[in-house]
Specification:
CATH superfamily: 5'-nuclease
Largest sheet: 5 strands, parallel
Number of helices: 6
Number of domains: 1
CATH architecture: 3-Layer(aba) Sandwich
Helix content: 40-55%
Strand order of the largest sheet: 3-2-1-4-5
């Protein structure tokens, strides 16, 4: 299991909110590990918060309180722009994925996601959340 700074992608958090057993298992394991810092990117938090349905606010914000949210800085935007231009056509990465990848490139850590294809960069650590 990954240790240190772990950036959980929005897809994993959304599956947890939808009560997917693997998402629950993964986040339970991560929370129990003293050597894991739970993080998410600013854009991933935005994806989740922007698309909450009525009645989901309290539960969603309670879950998000487990994560530190890394800000988007000028340096991160510049690195993300380079990733986006390099990988958009061949891998279809989006802006949010490029910003999370750049966050990890700048701040360190590992991305946990179900969409590993969105992170083809070889200079960052990316792990599939579960099979």
């Amino acid at each position: 299991m990954t240790t240190g700074r772990v950036y959980v992608d929005a897809d994993v958090i959304i599956w947890h909110l939808r009560d997917h057993p693997e998402a629950h298992r993964l986040l339970d394991q991560l929370v129990e590990q003293p050597d894991v810092e739970l993080w998410t990117g600013a854009m991933q938090r935005a994806e989740i918060v922007f698309y909450m349905l009525p009645g989901e606010e309290a539960r969603t914000l309670r879950l998000l309180s487990l994560f530190r949210t890394h800000p988007v800085t000028e340096e991160i935007v510049d690195v993300a722009g380079a990733y986006f231009r390099r990988w958009r056509r061949s891998h279809g990465i989006g802006e949010n994925d490029a910003i999370l990848a750049a966050t990890v490139a700048v701040a360190g850590g590992t991305i946990l996601t179900l969409n590993t294809r969105d992170y083809p960069m070889t200079d960052i650590a990316v792990e599939r959340a579960w099979e």
